[in-house]
Specification:
The complex is a heterodimer of chains A (about 675) and B (about 750). By secondary structure, chain A is α/β, with parallel strands linked by helices. Helix content of chain A is about 40%, strand content about 15%. Chain A has four domains: about 160 residues, Up-down Bundle (de novo design (two linked rop proteins)); about 120 residues, no CATH class; about 170 residues, FAD/NAD(P)-binding domain (3-Layer(bba) Sandwich), CATH 3.50.50; about 160 residues, 3-Layer(bba) Sandwich (FAD/NAD(P)-binding domain). Among the domains of chain B are: about 90 residues, Ubiquitin-like (UB roll) (Roll); about 180 residues, 3-Layer(aba) Sandwich (Dimethylsulfoxide Reductase, domain 2); about 90 residues, Barwin-like endoglucanases, CATH 2.40.40. Classes of the chains: A alpha/beta (about 675), B alpha/beta (about 750).
């Protein structure tokens, strides 16, 4: 049966129990009415209410099973008095009622324990578990009373029903890698930094990296923002990683790596960037042999050769990489370019192949007279390759030789363009200009406030609402640019404001370099044309975004070559999921998702974070800590890491702002 | 990787890392506070009570019990006061019907299935569960659930009963954050949760600190268990006799017997020796008049008094007065080097004392340990480094010839140097720490003239190691240099001390000169010491021609430190009182003094006479306080005042660095053993004291595991078994000397020496 029969989800109240189906009130939420395409759900119960999809559901048992799931969760926790004991009492009393042995006294006890749990529990999970149970007791009062009055068990007390539960949190849900954020923050709060790190590594092997250069979408879903400002989630990840490195500890894996399988099965990964490394790590933890083929002489992909040293010190990234390469199951081949012929060989030899080669072609600016071969026209990717290979590995030659005392114009607006202009400053350019089509607010939205602010401090000149119309060159060398100015004209009818060219607003910039950093494309030459792989409209490999298999069986794709240029954490999330699917594929030959993954996707559709929710039980107005940064004069002529990270005390204070917004949700199918 | 389209837009950071002054109202009282303070702390500062089960002042908030919830006007729900900071103007109420109900319910939950065995439980009478159950009027176990079998575990010094455990997590915090043994973990399991000892094989006496904070009878001292009711014991406030940390403790006594040692665990800690090594008294001593007469005769004949550092300040003053009156030579081998060192240090630093203390050490962000195997030498210093490491993520550089695997969890950089190269190493360190500082010409010239390349090569401390160290301290503040006893008796100690004086005076580092033995600092400040004995020596807890001994076998018995009253001078520069825990009916040094023409009814009459020129105060013993206040500030005795001294900056050229090839031994007592007294206690009674070394050492010394060997150090002959220790590396073995009774006070040489085996 499809449709929502009854719902108290997120404050709505729908009761279609006595209505004909045509008159049913629909729910405003994307509730998981169908568990999978082939399987309907009977009910959904979670932190913010309960929804029933099936008239025959046994609500008392549903409440009891939800309490049981909380028991399962609290077996992984039990770290506060109300949660540890309250959860147990909750379950025992509900089971007593469901068995037909309950009394009204038990109902009172239930309400009493529920209240204390809701007021005093340490995590949101303890505070919210009673909510749907109390909803059921209220709206299905007659059912509860019937069992008590007549001493009978609930109607499906012994029936086989499948209850599938998942614990999540708004931040975890928003994180593309679904990192167990409250757990790693708790590790910091407990000063158990190894625990913090192994919590991160459950789904995110690049802890140093994503503790530094992650754009932290999680912080946009932090419930603390409903109270004052979000927890500084991203930077707290550094503590665990730094602890392991500083004290030269053995690798803190989320679980002991399984012994190498001896079934001869193996996986090939094309590209040793964040996606490739991540997939390799999770396959290796499962004991599956992995070979990584990398075209560059160094490992790490764009984070190694794209992200500059001052943002992501290679010594730290190398620790993340070593974590992966230290695994017995992993072998890497650098300087190994995979072309179509080689890919066919690999694909035939390995049981599964993951494409994770990123997007390494700089797109054009789209100006007149734009030529690749003219001196001074330098794609962002190749410019950053040169800068980083020299500073991090002493490969090649210093970009300073090219850029010192030169005028550099970059066209962009994202992280890569920020890297280009800030590196240009560090290489001694005389003048560095960033041209951007839109405004300041948008560039901050695209990157971060810090990134923009620091670039301005370092002397980058930003020209907003501008675009290159024509590139001039003389003797094979760029000389100047003709630039159009735009303005944002509001739509008088209240529609979206439009960028319109300003008449007579054109101006010229004399320059030595034009560095396009507008976007990147995937280099698709390695894909054998006869495979006829399905592609997206933007020229990347098409998958269903859930299992990451391409249109060719056994060939998977993750990271930028699948999604298009996106974040590190996105690549990690996709690759982690792809690895999980590949593990099962190797075992069964079938493509499937685990219940946990299915629930993960349902919750993502439902949206865990509620921006409008009123948070209670926490003191508002406690300032978010910010870490110290190098001053502009201390950083602009060198590659020292700009962000010094939290001091121990700042980290602890920041960790204490975390409200541990774990939620438990459950589907009955 | 690029272009993350930021949907919501992050609210900009409110840059507010600095603490600000605020006013809040708690239960109607206006309280001054800062934005760094938690609500609970503000309340306690102001004498307002908020009940807690899991709160332990000396560690970061645990937040497991949820009892401390309070209400804040205008804010919905209950706020956890132990962990919440507050904003200016908040109006907080700690009591209401609503809050009381929650607290009572929490107590009901704590009492679910809690065994009703108070009658035989060690904790009865001082149990937090008992107290709070009564406080919240929970007079029946209204909730129960199916119970499970939870057997008691014996972990050696302590035992754990999971059935009594309420999972407050205090013990785990202490093990991780203070002692740093990291032995305890929370085995999360909801209703089945328990505490796990992951280092059961290693019977760690510092687990006593975890037992000390247990609010119930779950984690208890194994030996104390079932021996006495808590309320039958008298608490005697005392200062620990074992090392220079001089921790505050209580000997708990009944019928002239010490049953256990407790402490103000809310605020302070002890090491295993302090906690369990309490039975070192000189028992059953009566006044032996003949022995006393002999003693007086001996004093008349003697030209030297040689003594150990295990004496009180008052006794030290009596000895000094003897010297002034009768021109004795005063020889204290344990303190002489330290006194010389302190003086040379002061000549450059301009102050007679170092400027750091344990508290400032634990607040440091960067720590360098130089010349000490600190985990064995002074556990309390190691605890405070652990606190800095865990709470502040402090950088900890450990500079020593031998790596110590026991502290790798807190050390971020191990800098190994060659034995004997301490002068050069200190110069390199001074050079690094004093870069870009304004210095007097003589010092600048000295540093400029250093042959860095040569010293680096000879000491094996690479320039890159020091630059890595400096880099790791970049942009941080709050630094401490911890200096240990490898340096005090170094042949170049004076020069080293001056360089360290310069570091205190001119660098960003505070300095902690860890005193090498119990009251070495007090003796250094009170006595004028001589370096050589004369013809006839009175030994006081030291070898001599006539021996006064608290070990019970001397020519005249003396009381042990837990049978005396007086003061000790601790590492914190605190003059700390200690009291009589066990009776003693024999003669004391004061009896001898009175016979020899000094005049004081009690030894403690000398307390107010301690030399004010060294920073002591004119205070009577009975005026000295012994307590912590509500927020954990220690009021015990008083703190010495630091005296300025005339500053002289002259430095000699660095001496040629000696080479120490072949098998080397390092004088070092293992954890829990400090001296002849710890060795007497039942808890740490060692049957066999061994020289421990690596396979490489065995090879160099041509010995093998289990060999009986004999060697001489400082003129003392040691017969020891050699034991291979796989945790050690290199050609240096650990050579203990705590078991040689009165001779152990005689050591005065550089801690490293060549091993020459006797056939």
């Amino acid at each position: 049966m499809a449709g929502v029969l009854f719902s108290t989800w997120r404050g709505e109240f729908i009761d279609n129990r006595n209505k004909v189906i045509d008159e049913w009130t629909p729910s405003a939420f994307a509730l998981p009415e169908n568990y999978t395409a082939h399987k309907a759900s009977k009910a959904f119960i979670g932190w913010d209410g309960v929804a029933l999809f099936d008239n025959d559901i046994d609500v008392v048992r549903l409440a009891k099973e939800y309490a049981a799931q909380y028991q399962v969760y609290s077996e992984a926790c039990g770290r506060c008095a109300p949660g540890r004991w309250g959860g147990r009492i909750l379950y025992d009393l509900l089971d007593k009622i469901a068995r037909g042995e309950g009394s009204y006294n038990d109902i009172d006890h239930l309400k009493e324990v529920s209240e204390t749990m809701m007021v005093t529990s340490k995590c949101e999970i303890g505070r919210t578990v009673p909510k749907p149970i109390l909803d059921l007791m209220e709206h299905f009062n007659d059912v509860f009373s019937d069992l008590i009055d007549n001493h009978k068990p609930s109607k499906h007390y012994n029936a086989e029903v499948n209850y599938i539960a998942k614990v999540t949190a708004p931040c975890t849900d928003m994180c593309p890698a679904h990192v167990d954020i409250p757990a790693y923050i708790e590790g910091v709060r407990d000063l158990q930094f190894s625990d913090s790190l192994s919590a991160t590594r459950q789904t995110m092997p690049l802890a140093h990296t994503c503790g530094r250069v992650c754009p932290h979408p999680c912080e946009d879903a932090c419930r603390r923002a409903n109270l004052d400002s979000p927890v500084s989630i991203m930077e707290l990840k550094r503590l665990g990683a730094d602890y392991e490195t500083d004290h030269a500890l053995p690798w803190q894996h989320p679980y002991d790596p399984k012994p190498l399988r001896n079934d001869g099965k193996k996986v090939a990964i094309i590209g040793a960037g964040p996606a490739g490394l991540t997939a390799a790590y999770y396959l290796a933890l499962e004991g599956i042999k992995v070979d990584i083929f990398e075209e560059l002489p160094v490992l790490g992909g764009e984070v190694a050769v794209g992200v500059p040293q001052y943002r992501m010190p290679i010594e730290k990234y190398n620790k993340d990489i070593e974590l992966v390469t230290s695994m017995e199951a992993v072998t890497v081949y650098t300087n190994h370019r995979v072309d179509a012929v080689r890919l066919k060989e690999i694909e035939a030899e390995y049981d599964a192949t993951l494409l994770a080669f990123g997007t390494r072609l700089s797109k054009k600016v789209g100006a007149e007279n734009e030529k690749h071969d003219v001196e001074g026209y330098w794609g962002a990717i190749s410019m950053l390759d040169k800068v980083n290979l020299w500073h991090k590995y002493r490969i090649g030659s210093p970009a300073e030789e090219d850029l010192k005392d030169k005028v550099v114009v970059c066209v962009g607006g994202g992280f890569t363009s920020m890297d280009v202009v800030r590196c240009s400053i560090r290489e001694g350019a005389k003048k560095v200009i960033m041209l951007y089509r839109r405004d300041e607010k948008t560039i901050i939205g695209n990157t971060t406030y810090e990134e923009y602010h620091e670039a301005v401090e370092e002397g980058v000149e930003f020209i907003f609402h501008s675009a290159v119309e024509r590139i001039y060159d003389e003797n094979g060398k760029i000389t100047k640019l003709l630039v159009n100015r735009f303005e944002l004209v509001p739509d008088p009818n209240g529609g979206r404001a439009q960028l319109l060219k300003v008449e007579d607003g054109d101006f010229e910039i004399e320059c030595d370099y034009l560095i396009p950093a507008v976007s990147q494309a995937a280099d698709l030459q390695l894909l054998p044309s006869e495979w006829e792989l399905a592609m997206t409209s933007w020229g990347t490999l098409l998958t269903n975004g859930k299992d990451y298999m391409t249109s060719r069986e056994g060939l998977f794709a993750a990271g930028d070559c699948e999604y298009g240029p996106m974040t590190i954490v996105n690549a990690v999330g996709q690759a982690k999921r792809a690895a999980s699917v590949m593990v099962r594929y190797l075992d069964t030959g079938k493509i499937s998702l685990s219940n946990d993954e299915i629930m993960e996707d349902h919750l993502k559709a439902l949206k865990v974070y509620d921006k409008k929710e009123k948070v209670s039980g926490w003191m508002p107005g406690i300032a978010r800590k910010s870490s110290e940064k190098l001053g502009v004069d201390e950083r602009k002529d060198n590659n020292k890491e700009v962000n010094l990270g939290f001091t121990g005390e700042e980290a602890l204070r920041e960790a204490e702002r975390c409200m541990r917004c774990y939620y438990i949700s459950m589907v009955a199918v | 990787m690029l272009l993350y389209i930021n949907g919501g837009g992050i609210i900009m950071d409110i840059k507010q890392n600095k603490s600000q002054k605020i006013n809040v109202t708690i239960d109607g009282k206006v309280c001054e506070a800062t934005t760094d303070d938690t609500i609970l702390r503000i309340a306690r500062n102001n004498g307002i009570y908020i009940p807690t089960m899991c709160y332990l002042t000396k560690v970061e908030p645990i937040a497991s019990c949820r009892m401390c919830v309070v209400e804040v006007e205008g804010i919905e729900g209950a706020i956890l006061s132990c962990q919440s900071r507050t904003t200016d103007g908040a109006v907080i109420n700690t009591k209401s019907k609503y809050i009381d109900k929650q607290r009572q319910n929490i107590m009901k939950l704590y009492n679910v299935n809690h065994p009703l065995e108070c009658g035989v439980c060690d904790k009865s009478g001082e149990c937090e569960l008992q107290n709070k159950t009564l406080e919240f009027n929970v007079n029946a176990q209204s909730f129960t659930t199916k119970d499970m079998f939870r057997p008691v575990e014996n972990w050696g010094f302590v035992s754990y009963d999971p059935a009594l455990c309420i999972m407050c997590e205090k013990c785990v915090r202490v093990a991780n954050e203070i002692t740093g043994n990291e032995a305890l973990q929370i085995n999360t399991g909801g209703y089945k949760s328990r505490i796990l000892n992951v280092k059961k094989d290693f019977n760690d006496s510092s687990l006593g600190e975890s037992a000390a904070v247990c609010p119930v009878g779950a984690l208890v001292s194994t030996n104390f268990k079932y021996t006495s009711k808590a309320w039958e014991l008298d608490k005697i406030p005392a200062t620990c006799a074992h090392c220079s940390s001089g921790c505050s403790l209580y000997y708990e006594v009944k019928n002239d017997k010490i049953y256990r040692v407790t402490n103000d665990f809310e605020f302070s800690s002890l090491c295993g020796a302090g906690r369990f090594g309490f039975d070192f008294a000189n028992e059953n001593v009566n006044k032996d008049t003949q022995a006393f007469t002999n003693a007086i005769t001996a004093f008349k004949e003697a030209d030297t008094i040689r003594f150990s550092a295990i004496i009180t300040n008052e006794e030290a003053l009596i000895l000094q007065k003897f010297k002034e009156k009768y021109k004795y030579r005063l020889v204290c081998d344990e303190a002489y080097g330290y006194q010389t060192f302190l003086k040379a240090f002061g000549n450059v630093s301009g102050e007679n004392l170092y400027n750091a203390n344990l508290k400032s050490l634990s607040n440091s962000k960067g720590i360098i340990v130089l010349g000490s195997r600190i985990n064995d030498d002074n556990p309390m210093v190691k605890y405070h480094i652990t606190m800095a490491s865990k709470r502040n993520s402090a950088r900890v550089a450990y500079m020593h010839p031998i790596e110590d695997g026991n502290i790798s969890n807190i050390v971020t950089q191990f800098i190994k140097y060659e034995v004997g190269s301490e002068e050069g190493v200190t110069a390199l360190l001074a050079n690094a720490l004093l870069q870009n500082k304004e210095l007097p010409g003589s010092l600048r010239d000295f540093l400029n003239d250093l042959d860095i390349g040569n010293i680096s090569a000879e000491s094996n401390v690479g320039e890159e190691e020091l630059s890595m160290l400096m880099q790791s301290l970049d942009k941080k503040e709050g630094f401490t240099l911890v200096v240990g006893s490898d340096l005090y008796n170094h042949p170049r100690a004076v020069q080293i001390a001056k360089l360290i004086g310069a570091i205190q005076k001119y660098s960003d580092f505070d300095v902690l000169l860890v005193p090498p033995a119990t009251n070495a600092l007090g003796i250094a400040l009170i006595c004028t010491l001589d370096d050589e004995v004369g013809k006839y020596t009175i030994g006081y807890n030291a070898v001599g021609d006539f021996e006064l001994s608290c070990l019970g076998n001397g020519d005249l018995d003396m009381p042990a430190l837990n049978q005396q009253e007086g003061t000790l001078t601790t590492i914190d520069k605190r003059v700390a009182p200690t009291n009589v825990a066990l009776s003693y009916n024999g003669y004391t040094l004061n009896d001898i003094a009175n016979t020899l023409g000094l005049n004081a009814k009690y030894t403690i009459d000398y307390t107010s006479m301690l030399p004010s020129k060294s920073g002591f105060k004119v205070m009577d013993f009975d005026e000295l306080p012994f307590n912590f206040d509500m927020v954990g500030v220690e009021h015990r005795g008083y703190l010495l005042s630091t005296k300025s001294i005339k500053n002289i900056d002259t430095f000699e050229e660095i001496d040629e660095i000696p080479t120490y090839d072949g098998a080397i031994i390092y004088r070092c007592n293992e954890a829990n053993q400090f001296n002849m007294l710890t060795n007497r206690t039942k808890a740490f009674d060692q049957n066999e004291v061994c020289l421990k070394g690596s396979a490489q050492f065995a090879n160099a010394a041509k010995v093998k595991d289990g060999d009986e060997i004999s060697y001489v150090v400082d003129g003392i002959r040691y017969k020891r078994k050699f034991k291979l220790d796989s945790s050690l590396k290199g050609t240096i073995a650990l050579h203990p000397n705590y078991d040689i009774r009165l001779s152990s006070a005689l050591v005065s040489s550089y801690r490293f020496s060549h091993l020459t085996l006797e056939q």
